[in-house]
Amino acid sequence: MPTTVAPIPDRSPEDIIALRRRHLNPTLSMSYKEPIKMVRGEGAYLYDQDGNAYLDMVNNVCHVGHCHPAVVAAGQSQMAQLNTNTRYLHDNIVEYAKRLSATFPSELSVVFLTNSGTEANDLALRIAKTYTLANDIIVVDHAYHGNSPTMIELSPYKFDGKGGRGRPAHIQVAEIPDDYRGRFRKDDPQAGEHYAQDLQRAIAAIHARGEKPAAFYCESVLGCGGQVVLPTGYLPAAYAHARAAGAVCIADEVQVGFGRAGDNFWAFEAQGVIPDIVTMGKPIGNGHPMGAVVTRPEIAQTFITGMEYFNTFAGNPVSCAIGLAVLDVIQQEHLQEQAKQVGDFLLQRLRDLKQRHSLIGDVRGMGLFIGVELVKDHISLEPATTEANAVIEFLKAHRILLSTDGPYDNVLKLKPPMVFSMDNAKEFLLRLDQGLQQV
């Protein structure tokens, strides 16, 4: 007789919460004061157990839309044929490496596949240390690069946060290049170069330990730091300082890659630089666990030490079929162009709202990666944290999903699926206007 799969009970939200508390990781949080039970996703929407549609403006993982039929079909088809490891030959992995590397400058042509952005950043660290024969790392303040032990050590967002153990000795933290509330503001045309000077202090601190810097990690747009767009000139100057000290430059594109930036497929391109290593995850598989590292051939060659990098699941035929489908959808549905068009519209209309609502202190972003910072005072820049979270709950009550981020938890972060439309944007702007009036 054929095997039958036991049905999963249709539980109430209250029962699920109780079971989570009994059986799941106790540090795992839930969104909103009253968590929502989601049962289905399609395009830019999630649907609860009662069939209510919620406009999803925070999920940059389901990059080409929840349950995109082409991506689902690619995974189902390949799963029904073969799924095995990369020690066997298969067309999918080489086709994916070829297609992915074609989206980068020609200098970046060697692909390592992983299962997540955390794994990608972990592997990038190993590669950087092998190439430079150094150990110390420079990161940007409030950065988050992953959940593994080594990435927690690289992430001020974690090691300086609740439960953190503080900065490890081999990590140096560079000043966050925030031209809204930092030392150098938007009225300084050289703010980027001025912020980059802080890398020299970090490098000096490494040399004072008798060590050398192996890498400078920087997100191409800062996520947990508050959706901060790097000031013009920051990466060119920062990369120059890092490379002069012998470090490699790693661009973390886990949140902002694959066309989300609008003008460019990769957000680092907006700064006119070519990193030595690029890491990616989240949107790469549209929700399927997948990540990647892309680097220069000369760096990849030094990783041949006799210790193989092998990953049981990374680069398997199913993952690569899904990754290829994501690239196809981005191209064929012109989603990068849509991110540019809708993102520019959102930024302009949000700046119009800023003129009417004193709570809005700053609007910033690229494409469909946008931050709206709320403040109580435009001189002191006192964070409006309570108000920001009240806006989030107001929007949730009107079936729009959003969240906050930044060092003060006062930045509304907009990073919807790339199928987010002009009509979706108008709906959000209407509700945000109402929410700001109410709080």
Automatic annotation (TrEMBL):
Gene3D superfamilies reported in the protein's UniProt record: Aspartate Aminotransferase, domain 1, Type I PLP-dependent aspartate aminotransferase-like (Major domain)
Cofactor: pyridoxal 5'-phosphate
CDD domains, alphabetized: OAT_like
Record flagged with keyword Transferase: yes
UniProt-listed SUPFAM superfamilies: PLP-dependent transferases
Keyword list, A-Z: Aminotransferase, Pyridoxal phosphate, Transferase
Protein name per the record: Aminotransferase class III-fold pyridoxal phosphate-dependent enzyme
Family to which the UniProt record says this protein belongs: Belongs to the class-III pyridoxal-phosphate-dependent aminotransferase family.
GO molecular function, one term: transaminase activity
